[in-house]
Design goal:
Layout (H helix, E strand, L loop, with lengths): L16 H9 L4 H8 L3 H10 L6 H8 L12 H15 L6 H16 L2 E5 L15 E5 L19 H6 L8
Antiparallel strand pairs: 1-2
Helix pairs in contact: 2-3, 4-5, 5-6
């Protein structure tokens, strides 16, 4: 019979919060931990959330993401670089590929040298080489942008934590 193998109660190993945290410190992700215990990734996430575990890099980035975007927006170069930037700010670059770090250095150089910020507006038209499905654009930096990499507009929900993330890093990768 084809299809996905289902996890059954007979191959489950008890999830213990302290063990989840230890495995995360060793570098395993939630999917790998779930597979080891015969449970879903969501079960691991629930234990972490319920019992106060450290947030994953992805969770930190998702909570700080300042816009409501679609999967099509994810094809835009600024979207990808800002995701990489948030990961860098959360990890100081630990575990990031050299390719991502190189692209980030190029992104920071572009923003600094051309005095730009990234603006998101779901109504922006597609822009070749930047945003194939629209939504993102590079804009000239204005005084009100401060030290942010992004332009705060009606489509932006930025938290205090977000203000710490969406600025240039203390040191480039």
């Amino acid at each position: 019979m084809g299809g996905k193998a289902y996890k059954t109660a007979t191959n489950r190993k008890a999830l213990i919060f302290s063990e989840i945290e230890e495995l995360r410190r060793r570098g395993l992700n939630q999917t790998e931990i779930a597979d080891m215990h015969g449970v879903s990734r969501q079960a691991v996430s629930w234990h972490k959330t319920t019992y106060g575990g450290q947030k994953s890099t992805r969770q930190i980035v998702n909570e700080a993401w300042p816009w409501e975007t679609t999967h099509l927006h994810g094809k835009a170069a600024p979207y990808k670089r800002l995701r990489d930037h948030a990961e860098y700010m959360a990890t100081d670059g630990r575990g990031m590929s050299e390719d991502k770090l190189k692209r980030l250095r190029t992104f920071y150089r572009k923003l600094r040298n051309e005095n730009l910020v990234v603006e998101f507006d779901p109504d922006l038209p597609p822009e070749p080489g930047v945003s194939p499905h629209g939504g993102f654009a590079y804009r000239q930096r204005m005084v009100q942008d401060g030290d942010l990499l992004i332009r705060v507009n009606d489509h932006t929900q930025i938290t205090d934590d977000g203000r710490e993330i969406w600025c240039f890093p203390p040191a480039d990768p």
